[in-house]
Design a protein that fits this description.
Length: 207
C-alpha cells in the first residue's frame, strides 16, 4: 500500500516571518484599494497584472529549470544534489528562493508541496503564490488527506504510489520536478518548457 508522509524541512516555521508576511499582505491590499479609489489604476488592470505574474512570468522560470533537467542529465544531477546554485545557473535567485530543494517525481513516489502555517513559496521560479495555496483548507488538508486534495485537482494516483508531503518554511522552499511526459523525445527544451505548469511544479497536477 502507498504511504503518506510529511517532511518539515529544517525545523519549524518562523512565526515572526508568518506575522510579517500577513502584515505585508494587508499593506498591499490597503494600497491596492487606495489606488483604485483614487482612480490611479483600475481593478481589472490590477487583476490582469497579478494573473500575469502568478500564471505566466514567474512559472516560466521554473518551467525552464524543469525542461533543462529533462534534457540535460548532468544539470539534473546538480539540481537534485544542490538546487539553489543549479537554479542560479539559469539566472533565477533572490528573495524567497535563497534555499531551494528540488523533489523528483517518479512512478513510485509523488511529491506535494504545502506551507502549513503561512504561504512560503519559491517566488524566483514560480512567481506569486496562487490564492488556493494560501488558503487554510489546502494548508491543512494537504497534510491530512493529500490523495483527496490531489483528486480534487483531477489527479488520481495508483494505490501503490507513495505520496510525500513537504512543508515549506521561511528557510527552505521546494520545487517539484515532474515526470517528463511520454512521447516527447523529439521536443527541444523550449517546447518542453511550454508544457510545464505552475501546478505541476507544486505537485497538484501532472505534466
Amino acid at each position: 500500500m502507498a504511504s503518506e508522509s510529511r517532511e518539515s524541512g529544517h525545523g519549524q516555521h518562523d512565526h515572526a516571518h508568518d506575522a510579517e508576511e500577513r502584515g505585508m499582505a494587508l499593506k498591499v491590499k490597503a494600497l491596492e484599494q487606495l489606488l483604485v479609489e483614487k482612480g490611479v489604476v483600475e481593478r481589472a488592470a490590477l487583476d490582469r497584472l497579478v494573473d500575469l505574474y502568478e500564471r505566466q512570468i514567474g512559472p516560466r522560470n521554473g518551467a525552464r529549470v524543469v525542461a533543462r533537467a529533462w534534457t540535460d542529465p548532468a544539470y539534473k544531477a546538480r539540481l537534485l544534489a544542490d538546487a539553489t546554485p543549479a537554479i542560479a545557473e539559469l539566472g533565477y535567485s533572490g528573495s524567497q528562493g535563497e534555499q531551494m530543494v528540488v523533489l523528483e517525481n517518479t512512478p513510485v513516489v509523488h511529491n506535494l508541496v504545502v506551507c502549513t502555517l503561512c504561504s512560503c513559496y519559491p517566488w524566483p521560479v514560480l512567481g506569486l503564490p496562487p490564492v488556493w495555496y494560501k488558503s487554510p483548507p489546502y494548508r491543512s488538508r494537504a497534510v491530512k488527506d493529500p490523495r483527496g486534495v490531489l483528486a480534487e485537482f483531477g489527479m488520481r494516483l495508483p494505490a501503490e504510489t507513495e505520496v510525500r508531503v513537504w512543508d515549506s518554511n521561511a528557510e527552505l522552499r521546494y520545487l517539484v520536478l515532474p515526470m517528463r511526459p511520454k512521447d516527447t523525445e523529439g521536443l527541444d527544451e523550449a517546447a518542453l518548457a511550454a508544457l510545464v505548469t505552475r501546478d505541476g511544479m507544486i505537485g497538484v497536477a501532472p505534466v
